[in-house]
């Protein structure tokens, strides 16, 4: 026999009765429609809390034609290419944890749910496109780990909503967020010069990535303004191990007394390489990183670094995508954030 004591599920009609408004008004508020008076929104939300009403997501999707789900995609061109840095390394890096936290801060208040996908093969990239085309997700928040990644172009060509973390490696009509990387490189240069460093070098990231190239250019231009004509460089791949190797090259080939590394992982590697040679950081060689990740606090000495506001950048990334979904014909836009120097023990 049915259990007559089973709790009754609240309906739109119940919410309307408690709020003192029509069922249509409740439906407009629940489905996020524009043009509803603020006092009605407040009354409906209060009634929802009092009645315990839970919207039927399937029914809501029929009305809004939205899944209230977005893909968070970490992509690359080919995991078999030389070098250790790829999508898997992004997920393991503290950088991605900060990105994820920023995304959630924007998505949760809108009751939008992220689904994480990796895309490094042709099949995986096709799966991303199909997932959105079939309506399982409304758009894509894309973190591209390597230059030459075809996915941004594929999503743009397909007319699918997408926002990219960092400037694409060639011009595309899509929205993106980034930090002013050249200004960040200049901050690192200014700090090393302020410490009295005159023979400086740089550990770059892969120079086919725009951000890595911009940090190198910004650093060299600032050093030129300080009268330093030549800045030697050694390339890394954003990993600690590559930072050790690149710093070892700089120390072997040049008598550097200050080094800027294009991310904190490589800066940690640079410190390790200097210490292995019996050098003291910062007395013998000063080191500045970039990102202000947890790695900056875990190394000894703690790392002076250029902070990019990753959480705020990711939150803006999510906001731009939700805005595009609300206004589909909106033109792509870019949001560029300013970096800041965080002084600690290494410089």
From TrEMBL:
PROSITE patterns from the UniProt entry: HTH_LACI_1, HTH_LACI_2
Record Pfam families: LacI, Peripla_BP_3
The entry's keywords: DNA-binding, Transcription, Transcription regulation
Molecular function GO terms recorded: DNA-binding transcription factor activity; transcription cis-regulatory region binding
SMART domains tied to this protein: HTH_LACI
Limits of the HTH lacI-type domain: 10-64
PANTHER family: HTH-TYPE TRANSCRIPTIONAL REGULATOR GALS, LACI-RELATED TRANSCRIPTIONAL REPRESSOR
Protein name per its UniProtKB record: LacI family transcriptional regulator
Organism (species): Cellulomonas rhizosphaerae
């Amino acid at each position: 026999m049915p259990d007559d004591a089973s709790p009754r599920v609240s309906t739109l009609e119940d919410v309307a009765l408690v709020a003192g408004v029509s069922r249509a008004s409740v439906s407009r508020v629940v489905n996020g429609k524009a043009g509803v008076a603020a006092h009605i929104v407040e009354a409906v939300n209060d009634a929802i809390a009092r009645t315990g009403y839970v919207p039927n997501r399937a029914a809501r999707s029929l009305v809004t034609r939205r899944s209230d789900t977005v893909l968070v995609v970490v992509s690359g061109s080919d995991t078999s290419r030389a070098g250790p840095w790829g999508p898997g390394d992004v997920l393991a890096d503290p950088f991605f944890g900060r990105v994820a936290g920023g995304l959630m801060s924007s998505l949760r208040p809108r009751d939008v749910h992220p689904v994480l996908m990796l895309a490094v093969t042709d099949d995986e990239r096709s799966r991303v496109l199909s997932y959105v085309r079939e309506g399982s997700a409304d758009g894509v928040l894309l973190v591209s780990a390597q230059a030459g990644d075809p996915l941004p172009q594929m999503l743009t060509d397909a007319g699918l909503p997408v926002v990219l973390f960092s400037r694409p490696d060639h011009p595309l009509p899509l929205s993106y967020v980034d930090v002013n990387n050249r200004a960040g490189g200049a901050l690192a240069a200014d700090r090393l010069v302020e410490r009295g460093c005159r023979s400086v070098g740089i550990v770059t990231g892969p120079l086919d990535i725009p951000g890595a190239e911009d940090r190198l250019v910004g650093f060299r231009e600032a050093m030129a303004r300080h009268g330093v004509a030549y800045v030697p460089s050694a390339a890394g791949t954003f990993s600690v191990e590559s930072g050790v190797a690149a710093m070892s090259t700089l120390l072997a080939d040049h008598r550097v007394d200050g080094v800027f590394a294009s991310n904190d992982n490589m800066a940690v590697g640079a410190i390790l390489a200097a210490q292995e040679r019996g050098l003291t950081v910062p007395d013998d060689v000063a080191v500045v990183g970039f990102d202000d990740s947890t790695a900056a606090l875990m190394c000894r000495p703690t790392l002076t670094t250029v902070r990019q506001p990753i959480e705020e950048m990711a939150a803006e990334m999510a906001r731009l995508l939700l805005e595009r979904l609300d206004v589909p014909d909106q033109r792509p836009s870019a949001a560029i954030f300013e970096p800041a120097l965080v002084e600690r023990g290494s410089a």
